[in-house]
Amino acid sequence: MRPIAISCGEPAGIGPEIAATAWQALGADIPLVWLGDPRHLPKDTPIHETDDPQDQRPGKLSVLPRDFGPAAVAGQANPAHAQGVIDAIADSVRLVQDGTARALCTAPIHKAALIDGAGFAYPGHTEFLAALAGTSQVVMMLACDMLRVVPTTIHIPLADVPQNLTASLLTDTILITHGALKRDFGIAAPRIAVAGLNPHAGEDGKIGLEEREMITPVLDALRNEGFDIAGPMSADTMFHAGARSAYDAAVCMYHDQALIPIKTLDFSGGVNVTLGLPFIRTSPDHGTAFDIAGKGIADATSMIAAIRMAAGMADAREGAAK
Question: Are residue 235 and residue 93 in the same domain, yes or no?
Answer without folding.
Answer: no
